[in-house]
Every structure is written in structure tokens, then in C-alpha cells.
Amino acid sequence: MQLSALHRNSISAGINKKRFDLIIIGGGITGAGIALDAASRDMQVLLLEKYDFASGTSSKSTKLIHGGLRYLKQLEFALVRQVGMERGIIHQLAPHLVEPINMLLPIYKNGSLGRTTTSLALWVYDFLAKVKKQDAYRMLGKLQIQNFEPLLKTNGLIGGAVYKEYRTDDARLTIEILKTAAEYGATCLNYAKVENFLFEENKIAGVKLHDLITNTSHDVYAKKIINAAGPWVDEVRRSDNPPEEKTLHLTKGIHIVVNKTRLHVQHAVYFDVESDKRMIFVIPRNEIVYIGTTDTNYSGDKDDIAVTKEDVNYLLHAVNKMFPSVQLQKTDIISSWAGLRPLIHEHGKSPSELSRKDEIFISDRGLISIAGGKLTGYRKMAEKAVDLIADKFKRENDIDYPACKTSTIQLHGAGFEIPIEEYIERRAGEAKQIQINTDHINYLVKTYGTDTDKIIELAFEKYNVIQNPKKRILYAEILYSVQHEMTTNISDFAIRRTGKLYFQKEQLLDEYKLINDILSEIIPAYEADVQLKFFEHILASSTHFD
User: Fold this and answer.
1) Structural domain includes residue 63
2) Lowest mean per-residue pLDDT among 157-161, 238-242, 391-395
3) Segment (H or E) for 171
4) 109: domain range?
5) In this predicted model, what pLDDT tens digit does every residue of 359-370 receive, in sequence order?
6) Are residues 270 and 104 in contact, defined by beta-carbon separation less than 8 angstroms?
7) Total-model pTM
8) Domain containing residue 527: CATH number
9) Out of 27, 492, 522, 546, which could bridge 487 as a Cys pair, Cβ 3.0 to 4.6 Å?
10) 154 and 260 housed in the same domain
């Protein structure tokens, strides 16, 4: 089933009174992973997201598929092994979205990690994750580190290490998983808020949902319902039965974005903060660099998470200590984001000490809830959840479902028959006819993978209709996103489908009104003024810190 915003309302109407095998509440990476796993095992699946897909934590992470080196400090060897191995699997499933990068780990006198400790930790890390020899870590001397990153502070520097991690776009990864799930027959609906549960014989049998776009309500039924609502897991559980105690411990993590001209790093850098020995990342991405993250307890509004002055000052102070010649100011920040980590509550532990492991809870009335975990572990979380559901179907209904096969299911857009760089070169040659340059083709391929072909085809179709080449390719991209990714408004497109708010802010400032105009041409009954006003508030908030 195609994820089309143009068919969205008929999809919504069509699920009323329908019965599924599984309803998933939550359209982030966890819910998406469960949808793909279950649908690929031939379950009839419905996924419901109260806002847009990936609009919660799954668009606000550090955007790394990483093995969790920091978890070695907490002796979580099984977690490091699992997510370390998952890095390579996810890279193979979506090579255009999950790219290997060099991560630099500088070592300083009196730092939290010494040279011997770092070497041992990285050896264990590589061993547990079964890292290939060519990607194994390397220890570097002081001069080598300075050559790698000349801006690093030299006072106390004794050396460092380089190891491999994987950079991604978390929201794009989520949407490609959902598109793949839809290809396997899953029905996925955004802006569909679950308001109540429906019960039969005191067991959960369905949900009452409210469609925020059509302003209609529907009753939908399923044999099993799983709550994968991330930071909202406890709220969903309370709609069934109030949990005896809090399941989640929410912590906030923020990131800030600066132009690469202000922090000209060549590699990603992972370093400890002098004041509290926490580790933070500095990660270059095309023309920008993003910095994060913080880790503070959170009890505020989960739908409106603010980046505060204190958050910003913490990161600026840490970066300016590590890169003393740079001296970033608040005015250098061009964008930011804040997200919540839905961690499993553990009494007496600080935010950084809390485990990133996931857990499954089952209520007396049958609601299955999954909480915790991390971006890299989404596929294994889904496998564990769907294994449990399949086992219940076997015991209760004597229905057999096959084992998980998502480790070999190529994600949508990842079906490259030639190396990605060669694919980009070929498409750039073809697209010259309609004045699309190589840089733009590179952006399209790293965003949409092989579906770049569809976007170029749409641009060719508009060649005689839209004279301006930049508007033509932008129109084609937006049309594709509406038709294939259930993009319903400018915020969906500029934040979660493309990341332009974070990674192409200057370009976005020039074109966001045009984007909104194009959406109003494509989508019937599009509330252009309302959506523009809402997006402009988000735009302003990305550089406003209370």
C-alpha cells in the first residue's frame, strides 16, 4: 500500500470498523520497525501516529547508528555487542542513508579515558561488534591527532584514536522503513490520534482514533495491540490501566547547528566535557556542523520541548574549551533541535547512568508496551516484540508465522545495482538536460536513494510547464514526497522528509514560502496560511532560546 497523502483520507475512512492482526500505536523508529517485521511475516498491520511519522524522538536524535562506546563504561557488553553488529546490518539495508564516518577520540592528560584504557575499550568494542579489519580502530600520537584536527586544544593532549561509526538521518530512515512496511501490506496513517481503547470481555480489542486532518473518528479492531509511543508510552498505558509505577524516565537531549565556516572540523569528534566528564559529539555534515548532546531530567510538555539558554551555554562552553581558537557565540547558531529519551526508570540513577536497554510490558487486559532502547537497536527491538506476538498467536489461535527476516530486507530506495557514487554520476549526466547540477543529484540520492529516478522523471514531465530549473526540481521533489511519503504540510517536508530546517537552513529561508505554495497547488483543501504560520513559529524557535 502506497504512503500517499493524496489517498490518505480514503485510507483513513477505509479502516473504520476493520479488523487487523496487529495495531501499532506510534510512528517513530520503533513502531516503524515493528510494522515492517510484522507485515513481512504476513500479519495484517495498522500503524497509527498521532502527529507526523518520526515527529518525536525519531527526528531528534544525534543521528548516528553507533555501537555505544560509552556503554562499555557501564559494563553493558551485551548491548554493545548487539548494537555494534546492527550498525553493519543497517548500513547494508540502506547504504545511501547510513554512511560510515571516521570518529576521532582525543585523549588528554587527566581526562576520563587514558591511552591504555581507550585502546582496550576500543579493542573490546571492535571485538564485540565484529568490526572488519579494514574498519578497525587506530591509536594515534599527539602530532597525528593535531594533523587530523588542527583546531583541537593542544594543552594536555597526549594522543587519541580513530574508529568507525555510521551517520544517518533518523527521520528519513524511519520513513523508508514505513515505505517498505507499506510494500508488504501494512497500513500506515499519520495524524491519527488514539483516544481510547475498545474492550471485549475485559480484554483490549481495538482503538477509537481521531483523524486530525479529516476531523473524523473511527473504531478499529485488532487481535493484538502494541504501544510503541516512545516518550508517550506511559500516557497510552494509562488509557488501559494506570501502571502501578512509572515506567519511563524521560531525559532531554538538545543539539545546536553552526555553519562549517565557524567550526571547520574535518572529522566527527567525540570528547568528554571537562566539567562533568560527559561525552559529546561534534559532527560535520556537508556545509554545517552539529553539536550535542545534553542529558537532563525532563518533566515538562512532551509536545513542546524547548532548547534553553542553559542547554546552549553548556554545549558552547564545552566546544569552546575543546576548540579554543573558535569561540562560538549564541549568534553563530543557525538551528537547533530538542528531543526526549524514553529510558526505563531506575531508582537513584542519574540521566547518564540510566540503561538504554528496552523492555516489554504486558497489562492484565492485554496491552503490549515496548519502551526504552535506542535508534541503532530498532530492528532487534521489533524482532523481540513480533516474536512475542507471533508466539501468542501460536498459543492462542494455533497460527504459525515465520521467523524474522528483516536483516535481509533491503529498505525502500536502497536497491542500487551499481555503486552509489557511479549511480550519482550517471543520474547527474542525465539530469544536465533539465539543468540539475551534480550537487543536487547527490542530495537527492542521499535523501531518496533510487527513487531519485522518480523525482527526475517528474521534473522532466514539468520541463515545459515550469521554466525555472530550481523551482521545477523542487516541485518534483515535493510532488514525490506527497505521493509516496504521506507529506501533508510544510513542516512534514522541511523537517522530517528532508531535514532542511537543520542541514540546509539558509536555502530553506529562501524557499520555504515557495514550498508552501507548491503544497497548496498539489494537496486539495490545503490550509496554506495556517500551515505557514505554524512553520514560521518553528523556524523562529530554532534560534530562540529562553
Assistant:
1) no
2) 238-242
3) helix 170-183
4) 99-166+249-350
5) 899 999 999 999
6) yes
7) 0.95
8) 1.10.8.870
9) 492
10) yes
